[in-house]
Design goal:
Chains A, B: It comes from Shouchella lonarensis. The structure is a homodimer of 340-residue chains. The first copy, chain A, has 340 residues and is of the alpha/beta class. Helices cover 33% and strands 23% of the residues of chain A. Chain A folds into two domains: 172 residues, 3-Layer(aba) Sandwich (Peroxisomal Thiolase, Chain A, domain 1), CATH 3.40.47; 152 residues, Stage V sporulation protein AD (Peroxisomal Thiolase, Chain A, domain 1), CATH 3.40.47. In chain A, a hairpin with a 3-residue loop joins strand 1 and strand 2. The longest helix of chain A is centred in the middle third of the chain and has 20 residues. The first copy, chain A, is globular and about 50 Å long. At the A-B interface, helix 3, strand 6, helix 4 and helix 9 of A face helix 3, strand 6, helix 4 and helix 9 of B. Strand 6 of chain A pairs antiparallel with strand 6 of chain B, so a sheet runs across the interface.
């Protein structure tokens, strides 16, 4: 299964048999409302805290995906889940509700593809009949933990990004119809010494470029082998930096080919600074939008490169720079043509 | 590879080809100093913060294991690492130093066996030639984050546990000599409504019993099929509760057969209340002590059941009870007889 130095090729081509995506009101007013199966007009979803609200988002994303796949929680052997909050509180509490055997993952905003890659491996090696991988974020829970209380009204520079209130789940299985996960590249930590937590996109761009270049080498492919290469949340600052870095490595990725989930989720009229971010961003955009676009546009193969900034509020306070990572997954059409 | 409902059987019997364990001064003065390859007399190990010190522990555990296996970081495709701190700060920063492609895991004190189980799957399915799984904790970093600053001098009840300052790493590969990982059972979240963070052992005992009983069912085995069954850190309160719960489920585990890493690490004269805890506890005791005991005692097969309390300071403040989990791995001798 290992191909090259840090990649996996799944010859059995595990299937994403269903997905579930849940968003908040700001996402409903965004550029991709159709990407969400469930949209809430209340960021609290009736809960007493943002953290408990995010837990509900995770539960709903998983339940929605299972319902679409006509599965119960009993049919799914394992749940791979992660988020940005301390001790993965929303993921762990959702695992309590769902009662699916649970493995917690942390890759910051790269968690979505870390989960998809490990989940596809489990299905490939018949360690599971069905696995669900889910990643989530909640704007207000993240602000509260990483930045300032929203009520404080702290100003942000234009390089900042807006953490999405979203959860995205994918159910993987060994056969049937649906998009196929055919490969993955696991990133290593890249830290170019940037330390500004209000410019995550710039900090993460070298990690994205590193993983993408490694992916091409490991699979002996070029950008032309893909219909779309999309990063997780590099935003307006990070995406052009990643493009330049890849150019330096000899890979030309033009604007049609190379995009970013963080630049797709919201409208230009929404005040999201340099774009969207959060584990829920790449998960919801990939599972709720890109998989449908593959069918609509006739795309054969895309590469989703989820990008994560592995800082903590404490590491920032201790004057550390930001270690970043990117994990990539290859998704191919099975030629069937159907919406999730 | 899936066996029963939530277990894996690795028919290729991945090998633990080397381990590395690092401890602090309190561990050096404990009951198992010989379990550690490296013992520091300074909990800061020359660093400016406890978090940075813990990062050094992770790095040293991995480097020690690699050195013993005559491997470089380039020979290891993936590092599976986790700890208790927010955003896995020590694991992520160690991954930056080590430059091994990195997947972050969170299972609180169950992280050690979550990593060993996923790592063994990677080797089994030839997704890696070598994988390193590492789990760590630092007493003072944990106190600061989860409880009170040590300087505050807060008193603890006798049900509290002492987070170990320790890191344990295991390098897995497909062939050669060494103990074999032959199976695993991934836990589900069990929460019996306990909410006292100073009685983690009591809270985690039902999760341990759930995973152990599920393990016996999935593998169609009984306690007699093991030379030792050891939990991660149930301590003096949790272990007898787990024993009682297993008795109710029809499994008699007597005192010789059923132990706890948290009751092995320190001396009775050390003021650790109900015992040791932390992801580094089960990792160091398993990799540094139990694997050697297998050879010394002629044990054929042991079951290590790492136990985790998935609470966060925030979930406690929000009056939530403690969701708990336990992940188990089966380790068997290859009959060779050698020390790690």
């Amino acid at each position: 299964m290992l191909i090259g130095k840090q990649s996996w090729q799944y010859t059995s081509r595990p299937v994403i048999c269903a997905t579930g995506t849940v968003g908040g009101p700001f996402e409903a007013a965004g550029a991709l409302p159709q990407a969400f199966d469930v949209l809430h007009d209340d960021i609290w979803v009736g809960q007493e805290s943002f953290e408990k609200a995010q837990t509900v988002f995770v539960e709903e994303a998983v339940k929605t995906a299972l319902k679409k796949a006509s599965l119960t929680t009993d049919d799914v052997q394992f749940m791979l889940a992660g988020d940005l909050l301390n001790q993965l509180t929303p993921s762990s509490f959702a695992a309590r509700t769902l009662q699916i055997p649970y493995m917690g993952l942390f890759g910051a905003c790269a968690t979505s593809m870390e989960g998809l890659a490990i989940g596809a491996m489990m299905v490939h090696t018949q360690a599971a009949e069905h696995v669900v991988a889910v990643a989530s974020s909640h704007h207000s829970a993240t602000e509260k933990q990483f930045r300032y209380p929203t009520e404080y009204g702290g100003q942000k520079p234009p390089t900042a990004q807006w953490t999405a209130t979203a959860a995205g789940a994918a159910v993987l299985t060994g056969s049937g119809q649906g998009p196929r996960v055919t490969g993955a590249t696991i990133g290593r930590v890249v830290d170019m010494g940037m330390s500004d937590p209000f410019n995550m996109g710039g900090a993460m761009a070298p990690a994205a470029a590193d993983t993408i270049a490694r992916h091409f080498t490991d699979f002996n492919r070029t950008p032309e082998d893909y219909d779309l290469i999309v990063t997780g949340d590099l935003g307006q600052i990070g995406l052009p930096v990643a493009r330049d870095l890849l150019k330096q490595k000899g890979y030309m990725l033009d604007h049609d080919l190379f995009g970013d989930c963080g630049l797709m989720l919201y409208k230009a009229s929404q005040s999201v600074f340099a774009g969207a971010s959060g584990p829920g961003c790449s998960a919801a955009v990939t599972y709720g939008h890109l998989l449908n676009e593959m069918t609509k546009q006739g795309w054969q193969r895309i590469l989703v490169v989820a990008t994560g900034a592995l800082l903590s509020p404490l590491s920032y306070q201790q004057k550390e720079s930001i270690p970043c990572i990117a994990h990539a997954a290859v998704i191919e059409t099975d030629g069937g043509g159907h919406h999730l």
